[in-house]
Amino acid sequence: MNRFLLPLGIFVALVGLLGVGLTLNPREVPSPLIGKPAPHFELPQLHESAKTFTEKDMLGKVWVLNVWASWCVSCREEHPVLLDLARSGEVPLYGLNYKDKRQDGLAWLKTMGDPYRLSIFDIEGRVGIDYGVYGVPETYLIDRRGVIRYKRIGPLTPDIVKNKLLPLAQELARG
Amino acid sequence: MARLLALLLLLAPVIPAHAKDARPAAADPVLEKRVMALAAELRCLVCQNQTIADSNADLATDLRNQVREKMRQGASDSEIIDFMVARYGDFVLYRPPLKATTLLLWFGPLLLLAGGAWVLVRLVRRRRPAEDVDISAAQRSRAAELLAGSEAERR
Predict the structure, then answer these.
(1) Chain A residues closer than 8 Å to B92 by CB
(2) Which residues, other chains included, contact B35 with Cβ-Cβ below 8 Å and sequence gap of 6+?
(3) Does position B131 have pLDDT exceeding 90, yes or no?
(4) Mean pLDDT of A70-96
(5) Which chain A residue has its CA at the smallest distance from B47's CA?
(6) Closest residue by Cα to residue A149 from A169, A119, A170
(7) Cβ–Cβ under 8 Å, residues B31 and B68
(8) Inter-chain contact A132–B87, Cβ cutoff 8 Å?
(9) CB-CB under 8 Å, B86 with A131
(10) What digits encode the pLDDT tens for the residues B14-31?
(11) Is the pLDDT of residue B60 over 60?
(12) In chain A, N or C terminus with fewer CB closer than 10 Å?
């Protein structure tokens, strides 16, 4: 009986590890920026190109930065979720138009609806690199002191907004 | 004549065809060499199993440009690596660093090999005693009888 316990134990442990592994996404690269200050940027706005926007404008407020592009297919998937989030008014939503053409970005927002207070225009993607963007869409939750507290890689889903994003945003707004 | 025409038609696409390569900037060959050497140490996060030197992804091109620009500004290789790791984490290094968190990654296979070898040695050692049993002559003939009997049954 004892002879079988060791291989059985190893087997059970292995199955456990593999089972956990199945729930993980191997392509996801966790961000080293969580808990660090949001990297500084000053970019022209998408709609009003003469005006700029910087992350310092948002100090004192909890806000969401969503990275999107008109050429991004997954962004279409998450767009209704963003519109709902904007309508709820729970947390202000700002867009980072990543490596896009201004005309295409504007046209996309016109067709799909604009959930953002404003969008900034990152034509070269340099600000994207500073934020560790490697796939669009990506979403950041930034607190009142300008520290990144949460990052979602991939499209937002109603489940993530309800169970992760909003509770954290509310907690940050209180504390 | 028809064959010549066919040959020309076959060759025609070759002339305008350009493989869309990871094309380096023409300017400075020494700089380019340094850029590509460092790019071979950084992972393309889109493809994830290629370096930014090899990858044709947009992000890879952007990151190479970033590397080139930083080198032009006088940054050292280690400064540029720190820049990338600060933004993307350790995963951006194509060769995982040797840290407390990556010890299992580096030495795991070795440990498994050693573990497997140990199990094998123990197994082989345990099997070896196939000793001869001492029996008397009477027992030997009885055994021969039984063996002959069972063979007769089988036929």
Answers:
(1) 29
(2) B24, B64, B67, B68, B71
(3) no
(4) 95
(5) A27
(6) A169
(7) yes
(8) yes
(9) no
(10) 655 555 555 555 578 899
(11) yes
(12) N
- Give the position of tokens 């290629």: B50
Alpha carbons B11 and B13: distance in angstroms, whole number: 6
pTM of the model: 0.76
Q: Do B87 and A33 touch (CB under 8 A)?
A: yes
CB contacts < 8 A (A, B): 38
Residue type, A42: E
pLDDT at B145: 87
DSSP H helical ranges for A24-88: 73-88
Asked if B66's CB is within 8 angstroms of A134's CB, the reply is no
Test B88 with A32 for CB contact under 8 angstroms: yes
All residues of chain A having their beta carbon less than 8 Å from the beta carbon of residue B91 are 29
Whether B110 shows a pLDDT value over 90: the answer reads yes
Predicted local distance difference test score (pLDDT) of residue B18? 52
What is d(CA A119, CA A97) in angstroms, rounded to the nearest whole number? Answer: 6
Reduce the DSSP state of residue A175 to 3 states and report it.
coil
Q: Could you tell me which residue, B154 or B101, shows the higher pLDDT?
A: B101
**pLDDT interval class at B2 (50, 70, 90):** confident
Cβ-based contacts of A125 with chain B (< 8 Å): 58-59, 62
Q: Minimal Cα distance from A99: which residue of B? A: B58
- Cα torsion angle, A141, A147, A153, A159, sign: negative
CB-neighbour burial class of residue A133 (10 A; exposed 0-12, middle 13-18, buried 19+): buried
Q: Is B74 exposed, middle or buried (0-12, 13-18, 19+ CB in 10 A)?
A: exposed
